[in-house]
Design brief:
Helices cover about 20% and strands about 45% of the residues. The longest helix has 11 residues.
Length: about 120
């Protein structure tokens, strides 16, 4: 059963909070340290597998643009699945985007991260 209540950041699992904090400041080294060795990251249809590939992806994704990131929502799906919605504003095409970061956790690490347009 999905819980659609918005959660403040401090109620998210530490792994999710710290991954996002590093990701927002484009610290791919720290962000990727929260990924499982066999992690799968999907962003707008592109899939990378393994911590090493994910690190390169996190380092390079969006690097050609300037943007700000603001968490606008979060909810718990179940003990292992969490969704954080962020709003990006910047120099990319369209200038504004709302994205869902769908986390699947395993052993306090991110096993899967799917980044997709926010579904209202």
């Amino acid at each position: 059963m999905t819980q659609h209540t918005d959660l403040p950041s401090d109620l998210l699992p530490t792994t999710v909070r710290e991954f996002l904090a590093a990701h927002v400041v484009r610290d791919a080294d720290t962000a990727s340290s929260f990924l499982a060795e066999d992690a799968v990251v999907v962003d707008q249809g592109e899939t990378v597998r393994g911590r090493e590939e994910a690190h390169a992806f996190l380092r390079d994704a969006g690097s050609e643009f300037e943007y700000t990131t603001e968490q606008i929502g979060a909810h718990r799906v179940d003990d292992a699945h969490w969704v954080v919605t962020v709003r990006l504003e910047g120099t990319f095409p369209g200038g504004v985007a709302e994205l869902d970061y769908r986390f699947a956790l395993r052993d306090d690490l991110v096993a899967e991260l799917v980044i997709a347009n926010h579904s209202a």
